[in-house]
Amino acid sequence: MENKVCLIWFLYFFTYMTNFPAVDMFDLKVDAVLKRQNGKHKLFVFGDSYVDTGNWPKSMSTSWKEPYGLTYPASPSGRFSDGLILTDFIASFLGIRSPLPYTKKGSDGKSSVKDGVNFAYGGTGVFNTFVNQPNMTTQINHFQQLIQEEEVYTKEEMSSSIALVSVAGNDYATFLTKNGNNMEDLGDITKSIISQLELNLRRIHGLGVSKIGITAMEPIGCLPRMTVASSYKNCSDSANSLSRFHNEILHQTIQKLNNQTGRPIFVILDLYTAFMSALNHPGNSNFENPLKPCCMGTSSEYSCGDKKGMRKNYVLCRNPEVSFFWDVIHPSQQGWFAVFSALKTSLLSLL
């Protein structure tokens, strides 16, 4: 039964685009997060819904529907959460504004992209998925155009630049759907995904980025899409085993890359451990039921944000701040802050 639930989760994953006090107790209020501009770094973001801050067209994505953006900025902003996400917190850590989404880049030259650019699109992967949006290779093509053709940044500016990469989950979902849920070849697809990811990381570094942070896969068995089977009480270890296998191969690849470059250019941001730290220590956090989402469809055919006419086909918790997850895939703003807090040591390695 658990394996069946794991497969069901993968079929749905790509349709969503992913001891901890409250945010303000760390003096990271929303205004402070978005207005600190004393950093020297540029941040370039590639990947999926865990880092996308608004690249999808407004008419095509749930991230532009209410109640997304409920906490910040009090209306949908294109983020797949109620407020700030991992990208925003990392940008604040670097002392810069959250990078502008690529699709919002204006014609005013450097001023709109002085803190970097976010190329990520929810639902995408290393390879093509079921969403008609740029995969990681195409995202890097857009980046290359800025660097080599438009010459937006100088070599000096690029010397302190940082990239954030978050991909893989949607590649697995697409593979399983296309292959009739056959899990026998998952080992091969993992190696294929990470092999292409390695090429992409080399390419980003070759374009002048000095440090690259790559997210490990989160514990997919703990996402509400999975934990609904246990009434949001338990994670699926069989699903988490895929995350662990992916992360093991990823660690080996990153170690090889760093050995070849002779310095720690590539840094793993361990989402698996960060998620588990928050989810396994409810007594030391403000999360009431860490495995239950704040926003969900009224039945299995609906999801957060779905409406028919004026009728809402979703239910919403009273206070997102006590929910680790916003919807069945993505953390809330408070959940992302918990993850960010657990990643601070790794983030120091990017400086």
TrEMBL record:
Q: Name one Pfam family in it.
A: Lipase_GDSL
Q: Which GO BP terms apply? A: lipid catabolic process
Does Chaperone count among this protein's keywords? Answer: no
Highest taxon of the lineage:
Eukaryota
Q: Sorted alphabetically, which InterPro entries does this protein's record hold? A: GDSL (IPR001087), SGNH_hydro_sf (IPR036514)
Q: Keyword annotations for this protein? A: Hydrolase, Lipid degradation, Lipid metabolism
Q: Which GO terms describe its molecular function?
A: hydrolase activity, acting on ester bonds
Entry's family note = Belongs to the 'GDSL' lipolytic enzyme family.
Q: What is this protein called?
A: Gdsl esteraselipase
At the highest ranks, the source species' classification is: Eukaryota, Viridiplantae, Streptophyta, Embryophyta, Tracheophyta
